[in-house]
Amino acid sequence: MIAIERSLDTPRWQRIALPFASLVLAAVISGIVLLVSGHNPIATYEQIYAASFTSSGALTSTFVYATPLLFTGLAAAVAFRMRIWNIGGEGQLYMGAIGASGIGLLLGSWPTLLLIPAMMAGGVVAGALWALIPGLLRAFLQTNEILVSLMLNYVAGLVMYFLIYDSQSYWRDLTSPTALVFPTGKTLAASATWPGLTIGTFTLPLGFIAGAVLAVLLLVLVRGTRFGFEMRVMGDSTSAATYSGMRTRRIILAVMALSGALAGLAGASQIGDFGHVLDPRGLEQAQYGYTGIVVAALALYNPLAVVVVAILIGALNNAGFALQGPGFPPGLVGTMEGIILFSVLGGEILGRYRIRVGSRVRPPETQAELDAAR
Amino acid sequence: MISHVEAGPASAGTATAGLAPAVAATGVTKRFAGGVVANDHVSFEARSGEVHALLGENGAGKTTLCNILTGLYHPDEGEIQVNGSPVRLHSPHEAQRFGIFMVHQHLSLVDSLTVAENVVLGWSRHGGLRYSPRQVEAEIAEIAARYHMQVDPHARIWQLSLGERQRIDILKALYRDARILILDEPTTVLTPAETEQLFASIRELVAAGRSVVFISHKLPEVLAVANRITILRKGRSVTTVDAAGVDARELARLMVGHDMPAGRVRRAVAGGATPVVEERGVLELDRVCADGDFGMQVLHEVSLSVRPGEIVGIAGVAGNGQRELAEVIAGLRPHTRGTIRVDGAELRGGDPRAAINRGVAYVPEDRMGTGVSPSLSVTENLMLKSYRRDAPHAGPMLLMDRADAQSRALMEQFDIRSRGPHALVRQLSGGNVQKVVLARELSSQPRVLVAASPTRGLDVGATEYVHGVLVDSARRGVGILLISEDLDEIVELSDRIAVLYEGRVVGIVDAAAASYEQLGMMMAGAA
Questions:
Q1: Which tens digit of pLDDT belongs to each residue from A277-292?
Q2: Mean pLDDT rounded to a whole number for chain B
Q3: Taking residues B70-93, what's their average pLDDT?
Q4: Is residue A248 classed exposed, middle or buried when 0-12, 13-18 and 19+ CB atoms within 10 A define those classes?
Q5: Is the Cβ pair B370, A243 closer than 8 Å?
Q6: pLDDT score, position B106
Q7: How does residue A361 score in pLDDT terms, banded at 50, 70 and 90?
């Protein structure tokens, strides 16, 4: 008799080895897909690697993709870990971009050293407030935060389009010749450009550095502080949290605000690091908010792992964009991302079980089963 | 077919005597892993045209027996007969082919569908997937009229009260031509008027030759509706009696037994009790009312007092307000009226943190779901409440190394067996989980301890350990409210015993002098 059962504890080596084994599996499955579609997998992987890391300017543009994913990945990870399903990273990113560009335009005369924190604060506040809408509804009216935060993404998108296309708002450029032909946002002053860290030909964006620091701080927050302790208890058992006197509503609100603030920073970094202008189309097409959910899931909601996964997924997206053309299947990168996601999450779920050969009856494990037995 | 005879409850049973019983269990034994014997050679038979009650406390084996009758469990020994011939039932579906249907306490209806749609869901008289609403509605109306059930076939389930929903579940079984209808504690969700209606329908059912197996722990209603009564106690069938030939006193005696099992001594008699020096209670409830999960009032003017060093037992059959009482004191459920005082100062309702800060410790009934955070470590679970103030910290940072050292000491003191302070609580055995809960609750130097079913599901050793800890804490001056379905435990440990029945304290007696018969009567609502 062979039985599959839940194993109560996973050995440490397995927890570390499993994601890597899953990645190898994903590469093999993707390779089969490539073979079937008439490509040499090894050659394609080499192409991807070069376009992501080694060819000229590749690493810099990998980090252009990785930076927003780092923030949205952290945003999703911090909420999902607590089993608060904030799917609204996309909309919170838009709001963060609106907030940061508004501040950047308004305070353009300030010195860069003051303007950067002000823009970050603008992104943080706008993203957090936007996330608090589903947060408040969840905390006080028990609405489903998945639906509300998801729908608010579309609302935020519409707000962004309204500001640039359908109104004469403060964000819209109404004077320059090109803007008279096609509606665009105002370009920020040079003082509002976030300086990156340049090493040779490679530029590390300020946003990525800030995100990496935040990842470490988040890990400390979750593992080491009272608030993190409350988060972990609530993520595991809401009734245990209530029972031990935790203010569960406040924790939900704080986590939603934190998650929204991180996604808002992604928007601020889009303005300060890269775009310098509020560009609704570009932000919407990039879908960093949604991809951040994939990043968080692949990182198993661990903030430090989010840093690594954001670089990998950023590299993959960068390669997909750089290699687009007749010789490179256009849907390949999306397919590979999907295969990686399935392998890693599948491996994670399967890793919780073990195969047992032997006796047939399983003793009741939980109180509920014991009670049912009587 | 039996014609509509005007039969009194007792005579209906005898009218069909001599025929093979509609359903019978003979020597049914069911064991579960972990050595639990839920049914130990249980026998009973329900005749056609009779209401047969299964009476017993929680854990007496009623539900297991019914799960065997409906094919959910397979008995280890013994057999089931339907109309005199032995049958092997492997699934509820098979049981239904023999006409055996069960109406559970938790109804299985689809909220957003209509009554008619629910009735035909999964099975239609007309076979296949065909569904003609008009025809089904006519059939439902016909069944409803025959058994005096008020039913609107067009209504959607979410619009109906719990009592009405139960009626639909019964109707669903009748639509499938149930011959034997098993009702599991059917009156729990009913108002008195609805109960009367249910009983009228039941009488019609048996008058039409069907059988009803009526599971209950409430003496008055068993006596009102049943023809014969089989009493279950601790997994065994004690006896079967004619409802006409017994009174509530006799039934209570049969249900709870005569006295404690040999070898166990009442603490109140043995002199283990602390002499009460203070008259004022450390925990005082004055006419406390509270609502249940479904918005119905479940606690009615409960007044109680626990003095320092005293163990007050709350006896009662589960579902009579015990869980709500514990939650109200722990601040997990707001009270709607009355006052709760701890050390003389009034406790704000519905605020667990306020209760904790005032020295109310709580061992919840739902150990794994509420009492601990299963995926966290032993240390983290030990500081589940103290993390706010007393746990080692520096500013907002918790100092886990020092917390681990503290938890090692507690693990030693409370004999918690695990691989160390970092072991996850869900990896521990039930007894060790309960020790973690007790260690945390008692290390906070509480004034009051509310312990709800603290030994449920534990083995003998762990049970004894928990009892020892409770007695010890009382000796150190903690006022303890012990809520348990295990009457032996209550009688053994308590100084005084309060009996809860339908959310009311029906009596408070001295544990030293309390008789099982008297307690059983109060628990079953017959005192």
A1: 999 999 999 999 999 9
A2: 87
A3: 90
A4: middle
A5: yes
A6: 72
A7: very low
- B410's CB contacts (< 8 A; 6+ apart) are B382, B416, B439, B440, B443
What's the pLDDT score for residue A374? 43
For residue B180, give both structure tokens. Answer: 């034997």
Structural Rg of chain B based on CA atoms:
25
Is the CB of A243 less than 8 angstroms away from the CB of B427?
A: no
Cβ distance of B352 and A245 shorter than 8 Å: yes
- In 3D space, the residue among B443, B429, B266, B441 whose CA is nearest the CA of residue B363 turns out to be B441
Q: What is the pTM of this model?
A: 0.79
Does A6 contact B at CB distance below 8 Å?
no
Strand ranges (E), B317-359 = 337-342, 345-346
Contact A166, A187 (CB under 8 A): no
Mean pLDDT (chain A, rounded): 89
Q: Which two tokens stand for residue B97?
A: 């082919």
| DSSP code string of A17-48 | HHHHHHHHHHHHHHHHHHHHTT--HHHHHHHH
Q: A359 at the B interface (CB within 8 A)?
A: no
Cα separation, A110 vs A240, in Å, equals: 49
Q: Could you tell me whether strands B23-32 and B77-82 are parallel, antiparallel, or unpaired per DSSP bridges?
A: antiparallel
**Interface contact B34-A373, CB threshold 8 A:** yes
Which one, of B438, B499, B498, lies nearest residue B471 by Cα?
B438
Closest chain B residue by Cα to residue A233 = B373
**Sign of the CA dihedral A201, A204, A206, A207?**
positive
CA distances (Å), origin B95, targets A81, A209, B346: 45, 67, 55
Residue A99 half-sphere exposure, CB side, CA atoms within 13 Å?
Answer: 31
Count other Cβ atoms within 10 Å, centred on residue A266: 32
**CA–CA separation, A162 and A149 (whole Å):** 20
| % residues pLDDT > 70 (chain B) | 92
- What is the pLDDT at residue B188? 77
The full length of chain A comes to 374
Q: What interface predicted TM-score (ipTM) does this complex get?
A: 0.83
Cα A15 from Cα B309, distance rounded (Å):
49
Q: Which carries the bigger pLDDT value, residue B442 or residue B256?
A: B442
Task: Walk across the sheet containing B479-483 and list its strands.
Answer: B360-363, B448-452, B479-483, B311-315, B496-501, B504-510
Q: What is the pLDDT of residues B468-482, one digit of tens each?
A: 999 999 999 999 999
Query: Is the distance from CB of A161 to CB of A280 less than 8 angstroms?
Result: yes
Q: Does A362 contact B at CB distance below 8 Å?
A: yes
Are β-strands B311-315 and B496-501 bridged in parallel, bridged antiparallel, or unpaired? parallel
Q: Are B50 and B16 in contact (CB under 8 A)?
A: yes
Is it the case that residue A358 has pLDDT exceeding 70? no
* A215 vs B156, higher pLDDT: A215
Average pLDDT over residues B119-132: 72
Q: Identify the band that residue B4 occupies on the pLDDT scale cut at 50, 70 and 90.
A: very low
Residue A57 CA: distances (Å) to CA of A282, A342, B228, B316: 21, 31, 89, 76
Nearest to A71 by CA among A221, A215, A284, A231: A215
pLDDT of B13 reads 40
Burial of B29 (0-12, 13-18, 19+ CB in 10 A): middle
Q: Do B369 and A239 touch (CB under 8 A)?
A: yes
Alpha-carbon span B495 to B8, nearest angstrom: 45
- Point out which residues pair with B450 in neighbouring strands: B362, B481
DSSP string, A102-143: HHHHHTTTS-HHHHHHHHHHHHHHHHHHHHHHHHHHHHHH--
| A11 in contact with chain B, both atoms CB, cutoff 8 A | no
pLDDT (0 to 100) of residue A19? 79
Give the pLDDT score at A367: 46
- Rounded average pLDDT over B366-389: 93
Among B457, B140, B170, which Cα is nearest to A371's? B457
Cα–Cα distance for residue pair B10/B228, rounded to 1 Å: 8
